[in-house]
Amino acid sequence: MTTKTMNQPASSLIKTLAIEVAVPTGVYYALHSLGASDFTALAVSGVFPLARTLFQFAKDRTLNGLALVVLVTNVVGMLLTFVSGDARMMIAKDSLGSGITGLVILASAFTAAPIMTKTMRPFLTRGKAENEAAWERLSGTETFDAILRRCSVIWGIGFVLESAVRIAGAFTLPISTMVWLSTAIFAGAFVVIMVVAGNVAEKAGRMIAADAKPLVAA
Q: Does the pLDDT value for residue 44 go beyond 70?
């Protein structure tokens, strides 16, 4: 297994964050500097994440549960924003979207198929056949499933809390401040959630490694 293959999940995540966060922020400030109104700049910048999701759907012809939630939230939020014509609502819709996503992730943690389980799998198996096989054997066991469920709870609660902070800021702080601050809050919260959930997920990773080791040795 090459380093390139092992880094594919991380590379994909970084690319997603760049399109969903960095590009819209840059577009907003570029248009705003050219004289566009807050509402217009925010509306145009919001097209990129939505376009990416639609492109992914057209390419794969399928959406996982999390992607579907994000798509529906973005579309509904965009429609409500244009109806209201409020630039603050434009900022709040993204925050609300992550909050709704968090609630869905949290709710799924108490079902047989937590949403984050599919997302975490490539990070834990690293694309190795022996790890994939170990995942299949461990899946359904009480300890392994409890760890994965705990990770979904962490992601869900984390998204809900950061969403609440950003929504409060969207309606109290200057719009030009919240454009970058909202991104900073999201990015900071994402890193914290990833570290905390990652520490928990390491236990599942060790279980996978231990289960796969006999096969590798053989």
A: yes
